Amino acid sequence: MEDLNLPGGIPVDTEYGGFEVLEEEDVADSAYSQASSIHNFRVEHGRRYHEYKEGHPFPYDEVSKENEASLHHVILLLLGDRYFLSPIDESRLRCIADVGTGSGFWAEGVAQRYPNAEVIGFDTIHHPLSVEPNCSFIVQDVTDDWVLDNPDMLFDLVHIRNLFVGVKDWKPVYQQCFEKMRSGGWIEQYEIEINAKTDDPNEPADSSMIMKLRHTAEDMARTTGRDFHISMKMKHLIEEAGFVDVQEQKVKLPLGPWASDPKLKDIGRFFERFYKTGLQGWLMHICTRFLGKKPEEVNAWCAQAFQEINSRQHRYYFLL
């Protein structure tokens, strides 16, 4: 498998910090005001949440779709416009699963690229019909037994991305992936470590809201029983499910276009957008329902974090 890591740290653009953020790069408060008439959704603090079974602590609305699109673009940039790294004979791809498909960006993209493969996206939200004839979506809690139109279907590739917090118990998910996979098939998962990091020796620990929020995330995980750290456990759990030749890579994603490398600079721009369109949704429900915070307090945290990014004085990154 190709190694995506750069040797050493991320090289810094020496001109970073010498320009202001364009106004349209910021996230306007009005973007968070969403509504829905769909019966199985609720609106809470201006965001829309779905309520399939226990529901999901993160919103599902137009802002979250933009958030998904930003991460989708980050991964395509990182992989050089590829949809997976697994060493699969692409001419033999027949069945592909996208677990936690969300808005279906990956599922529809891979279906378009591989028209001879059948692609199925699983999620707990209802998805409209795909524009790709070889792509379909199933409303399914992936911790349960997967119910397929063809019960004998086996997958050549199972893709999982950014599903942290959405799954409480990962063992049955990986077990289903193993049982529904063709011999020689591959599972490929992308999860972001939620703690911001920096290689800048002049940046004190907890010197900013972005760094402080990692403590809030620990409180959120403890009070909800949700797994915020699947990125650190998934290799072991995947092996425990029966998979062999499991490989793991960790790649630094810069928060903002502060890298001198052109590819990483573009990744940083889209990852900044991912962070800005995601932060309020990641925090609001759990912090107000479980930690006793006021919506105004959560919004103030977000505003401060965005100001720190916009100052162009920090060199933060997250591990993928």
UniProtKB/TrEMBL annotation:
CDD domains in UniProt: AdoMet_MTases
InterPro entries reported for this sequence: SAM-dependent_MTases_sf (IPR029063)
Protein name per its UniProtKB record: Methyltransferase
Pfam assignment, any one: Methyltransf_23
Coiled-coil portions: none
Top-level taxon of origin: Eukaryota
Entry GO MF terms: methyltransferase activity
